[in-house]
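Extended Data, panel c. Modelled sequence:
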Amino acid sequence: MKVKFWGVRGSLPAPIPPIEIENKIVQALGGASGVDLDDIEAIENYVRALPFYQRTTTGGNTSCVEVCGDNTKIILDAGSGIRQLGIELMQGPCGQGKGTVHLLISHTHWDHIMGFPFFTPAYAAGNQVLIYGRHSRIKERFQDQHHPDHFPVSLEAMSADVQFVQLQEDTEMTIGEFTVNSMPLRHPGGSFSYRIEKNGRAFVYATDAEYKDLSPRVMAEYISFYANSEALVFDAQFSLEDAMEKEGWGHSSSMVGVDIAIKADIKRLILFHHEPSYNDEKLQEIYDKTIRYYEMIKGNRNLEIIMAREGLEMEI
């Protein structure tokens, strides 16, 4: 399966401020001494060698991750990142009114569904959009967002065949060539993790979760659900310090993610759902601290830690 990240922020979109773009340019030019600025290849090589937070940005869109199989497309959450994904999908079968999209919703807090009213394939007749969720009244929750008090176009005005699938507890389902299971997470209002498997390889999406009680008894269920996955998308919204100060807000930190990933024998830990007030430099700082922590405790384990960013792609 192929995975692509279209939105990686939590809480609300956080576009990069103009002053930060200007600062990146200033920092880059300040270190360009000796670079032949008349040589495009030399400039490109210099830029590629810059630290991530200087040369580009993590992105400001909220949660949306695409999982593609040979003939099946699954989207995890409909944050603001789904708008750009929808535009790309219209270049394929969705643009011909022949597309089928499976949308799994972790929960219906605004940052996870706010992009759906702007999801272009849902407005194209002939397309089928199947929305899955374990929360009660999942259809009504989407209708509320499309109420005239909040948005000018009703859900019923979407021309595609939009259907809602109520998921049941402890029920495995098949979506195309994928097997999908879900598990509740600790989060205000409730959130759900999804484990997507194909040919013995698993991808786990576990955003919006707080691990308040880290005792082995309580953590056993999480460890079992995440176990041996090729990649775990993990709610690392807060720095360790902020996570302690904001107990009860329903989010976690990268350090907790490392502990869980090691115990569950995860191959890749994807830090996700970034705090909107953290800029790229702050996220780089958190990443560096996370790597140092992992190096101290890893023993003979081999875990790849990745900071989620818009446009990140991987093969599972």
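The chain has a mean pLDDT of 95. This feature is highlighted in the accompanying rendering.
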